[in-house]
Fold this protein.
Amino acid sequence: MTLGEWVLLLCAGLLGGVINSVSSGGSFFTYPALLLTGLSPISAATTTLVALTPGNLAAVPEFWPEVKAQKHRYPRELALVAAGGIVGIFLLFATGAEVFENLVPWLILAATALFAISPLVRGWAEVSAPSLTDGWLGAALVFIFSIYLTYFGSGVGNIMLAMFTIRGFGDFLHANAAKNIAMTLGTVMAAVAYSIAGYIAWWPIVPIALGSAVGARYGARWARSIPVAVLRVFIIGFGLFVAAWQFTR
């Protein structure tokens, strides 16, 4: 890895950390940066998943009181996440690099769309949660998005937050705690499986992780001064740009 590539990934991690500290969508920046360093789409996607793991894991202790308060719900929900995650991993292995590369522009469009509609989904979830708490629809949605989590992952964080609101975790803090646990489980499963398969590029994770940590720690105050709507428009616009770039490659 050249110095220029190292700086590029550091900056992508920094921007991703800032964005994730107030919203989500940091992977929209780390994924294309990894592509620019010469990684294949499948390696860039799986490496991004692994790079997200420390951030997800680090958030878990902060919400441990909320986790303990809802501990009776976790076995069922984590079983759904694990089952969906396994399907997503095997789906990636089954489709292979060539099919995955052809799907990448569509996956980025899907990720951008998920990010764009997530506030609407979350609002709907908060209203509909009482009728869907123990329903099959909520369980099916958690399972489906867990498949997406380990197959590609970008843009799924806010949707998973909405899913756990649907599943009866209550307020934002309790649902966010469940989201962090689920994302940690999915990304750890992916990290193990894709490491064994040889898809992960380990050295690029170092500058991304460093940049992300600094961005999350010191960029949050600056990012909070920007209206969330402006940040969301920027992230959606960048996602569409990356999708268009991938379509023309």
Notes: Residues 74-132 form the longest helix (59 residues).
